[in-house]
Amino acid sequence: MLKTRLAAGVTALAATAGMVFGAAPSAAAADYPYADIEMSHLKFGATYVTGRVTFYNRSASVVGTGHFVGCRTLYAWAIDKQPGDKEVALDVGSTSPQCDKDHPINIPLEANIAGGADRVILELRDGAGKPFPTRVFMRYDLR
Questions:
Q1: In this structure, what is the dihedral angle of CA atoms 68, 69, 70, 72, given to the nearest 10 degrees?
Q2: To 10 degrees, the CA torsion angle through 77, 83, 85, 86?
Q3: How far is 109 from 70, CA to CA, in rounded Å?
Q4: Residue 120 sits in which domain range?
Q5: Per-residue pLDDT of the chain in tens (143 residues, 90 and over written 9)
Q6: Strand runs labelled E in 25-130
Q7: Is the same domain home to 48 and 19?
Q8: Whole-angstrom Cα distance, residue 43 to residue 134?
Q9: Structurally, how many domains does the chain consist of?
Q10: DSSP run (H or E) holding 28
Q11: In this structure, are 2 and 61 located in the same domain?
């Protein structure tokens, strides 16, 4: 009987810990600066991207959905502006080429310097690599 009560107590404790600790990451993520990517921000013809750019301490992320008409690739750069107006690319990532479909976007970017990237540049390209619209999201202009 003692083993049954002990097992029930451990199970209840694990469930409570899961509820408490399971909610923490989403609450903490809201503390980081972010910008919503609206359809008008990155659009070419009927192709557009929606989602969010989030800046973390030593990384950034681009998460959302691409509505790709024709073959398109979304590129993202994490950039740091250094003294003398020198811009340094800390990381680059992209989707794979997507053709005529909606596609989830998840591009993690490393920015392994103190304070992280100060901007993220997003750019759509066609199947041949020709760039279309570019949008810059600045860390310090955000929510």
A1: -20
A2: -50
A3: 26
A4: 33-141
A5: 444 443 444 444 444 444 333 333 444 556 899 999 998 888 999 999 999 999 999 999 999 999 999 999 999 999 998 888 788 999 999 999 999 999 999 999 999 998 899 999 999 999 888 998 899 999 887 66
A6: 34-37, 43-44, 47-55, 59-82, 86-94, 98-110, 119-126
A7: no
A8: 9
A9: 2
A10: helix 24-29
A11: no
Q: Are residues 26 and 66 in the same domain?
A: no
Do 63 and 26 belong together in one domain? no
Question: How much is the pLDDT for 29?
Answer: 56
Name the 3-class secondary structure at 128: coil
Measured between alpha carbons, how far is 60 from 33 in angstroms, rounded to an integer?
A: 10
Separation CA 71–CA 25 (nearest Å): 35
Taking the model in full, what pTM does it have? 0.76
pLDDT tens digits along 6-38? 344 444 444 444 433 333 344 455 689 999 999
Report the amino acid identity of residue 49: V
DSSP for 7-20 reads HHHHHHHHHHHHHH
What pLDDT was estimated at residue 25?
41
Residue pointed to by tokens 């690319």:
89
